[in-house]
Amino acid sequence: MLPALSRRARRALVGALTAITLTVSGATAASAETPQELAKKKEEETKIALTAAMAIGAGNPLPAMPISLMAGPKDFMPVDNLGRPKKEILDQARNFANSTPMPDQIRGAILAGIMFWEGGGKSEIKLPEGAAPRFKQFYWPSIASKCINAQSDAIGSGIAVPGPTVIPVPGAKEGETAFLFTALGTGKLNKTDMKVYWFNLNTFKSGVAPLGGNGINPEGPATVSGNAPTGKGNVIAVMDGSIDTIEKESNAHCSFIPTAAFFEVN
To answer: Which residue, among 223, 230, 170, has the nearest Cα to 200 in the 3D structure?
Structure first.
């Protein structure tokens, strides 16, 4: 049975399940469709997934999207051959976010996603040199308003690392998963109420893993981590919660919107 989830976490979980369903159904039907039909289907699925992810992740319905974002010529594909949104799509999304009246939290989530895909967000997570562990990035960046010096928005980045692994601290044994979340641009960690809600699709086991301060980036940005006995199999995880930081000018309480990941533990 699933643990008790917040409304925002439930929405993110539904969004992740929807994305997985679209991916699986698309792969199953691929052999029966022509390349042109596959391209058209991929275009529609991508538009649906991008719109749903933003709306579900923010926990609010999005304003009506402009026609240029929701429809285009038949040969129009919003992603490149690696599955990344094309530059013109990111530019349209940026213009949409900056020119359309909407809640600040949704605007921040859209701009955070754009920065993520453009590679503009400089990672401040320090990883050891040499062989790095296999990890899964959470699908979309999280966002917290008035988080940096209690004035500016902060982008949160989460990863899942299937065990066995020694990093991130506290590591994970075989059949476990380690989780890490960093609030980029923030000060030192003070308190944390970040959690990961997970569900194993193969064993039907579920749980909640609190993320605590484990000495990662002690001078900032605020970083929390933890592990969970997910077991082996395909796992869905939803990460959300809040952290309190110690800033130079003003301490801050940062409430992050949910983000989700789907990964396999071998």
So the answer is: 230
Question: Which positions ≥6 away from 44 have C-beta within 8 Å?
Answer: none
Residues contacting 264, CB < 8 A, separation 6+: 162, 233, 234, 235
Q: How far apart are CA 119 and CA 121, in angstroms?
A: 6
Q: For residue 84, give both structure tokens.
A: 């990344």
SS3 helix, strand, coil % of the chain, rounded to 5?
30, 30, 40
Q: Is the full-model pTM beyond 0.85?
A: no
How many angstroms separate the CA atoms of 194 and 125, rounded?
Answer: 17
Cβ-based burial of 248 (10 A; exposed 0-12, middle 13-18, buried ≥19): exposed
Domain annotation for the chain: domains and CATH numbers: 7-118 (no CATH), 136-265 (2.60.40)
Percent of the chain with pLDDT strictly greater than 90: 34
| pLDDT tens digits for range 199-212 | 999 999 999 999 99
